[in-house]
# Entry
Amino acid sequence: MLLKEADLLKQLIRIPSVNPAFASDGPAGEAQLTDFLQGLLDELGVRWLRQTVDPGRDNLVAVLPGSKPEVMLWEVHQDTVGVEGMQIDPFGGEEREGRIWGRGACDVKGGMAAMLTALARKIAEKQKQEPTILLALTVNEECGFSGASALSRLWSKNEEEPIDPKSIAGPLEPEELLRLRPQKAIVAEPTRLDVVVAHRGVVRWQCHTHGRAAHSSQPGQGHNAIYAMSDVVQAIEDYHQQLHQREPHPRCGRPTVCVSTIRGGSGANTVPEHAVIDIDHRLIPGETSDEAYKQLVAYVSEQVQREGIKVVHDQSWMNSLGLGDENNQDWAKQIASVVHGIDLPSQLIGVPYGTDAPAIMAPDIPTVVFGPGSIDQAHTDDEWLATDQLTSATEVFYRLACGKFR
Ligand SMILES: [Zn+2]
# Structure
């Protein structure tokens, strides 16, 4: 069966797969898309396996055997961000002006369409040579990277986190998959066909101030949690300025911290007894989220001391390491040379945003981020992907699948 990448992308956009964390009213979850993809793999004659990550949320992993023992992993997430405030039909999948429009067009159903179309072409041409391809269509990238983390546990030797055999099932035998440890990996994201070798990590948590309520006509009777929170916010801004003095990472710049939401108080005539903020702390490769969290918490507790006030930091709810470029440059150069082979530019770059790649990267699994379209169009109210980017990416994935590195 031959696929056309543009037609496939339109189909993928028309199947909503909004991450439940961003689904305010419309459809939520990846399940409908997972079922479609499973059907497509069946039509292509590719064996697959489903790995349940959360109830109703499954990774789908497929294998296309090659002639060499080398295993190349292609990973792409199924979920998208929400659709509130979009200026176009989010699930229209319309093509005009050389672009395909809709939620997920660029992040990252374009990359998914390119990978699937390339595989379909390799199958149709009965190209048996070269690497075994593992295609992993994962859940929950946009809010916690838990699909990719679950995927990587399939090959990890970490016995503290054993795989629940009931969580994996399909025509592909789990034992066969566990033997197919990848030697290199590509994570699809919109990189404009540049190859991302490094990016920052992130840790997020909430911080509370607790004081004592009183009638607002007698503020001295209470302890004002909002005043205390303003001290906390100021301390975090100071900390950010200090981070700005650090030596920058050559590809990723400096770590940053941002207070991104604030709420507090219960009414206009009450001294507030509680306030809460969200903290978003971006890390450079090599920093651990645990260390970064502890350092900032210690700084705040040093700076903020008010009578009658308790400052409480929740445990972090999101932790993702940065992607370091220590062992992936050779692999990245190979991919860039394939892009050069179709007369397009491609560079090795670092980016500020996070991806699934650190969850997959291991000392023996060089991992890079690569795909069609620009991150500038990701998550926007008129998301689109240029069709020429899609076609070029499909050709690159096809050449990689056939081991054509020049
Ligand atoms: Zn993405």
Notes: Residues 288 and 321 are 6 Å apart (CA to CA).
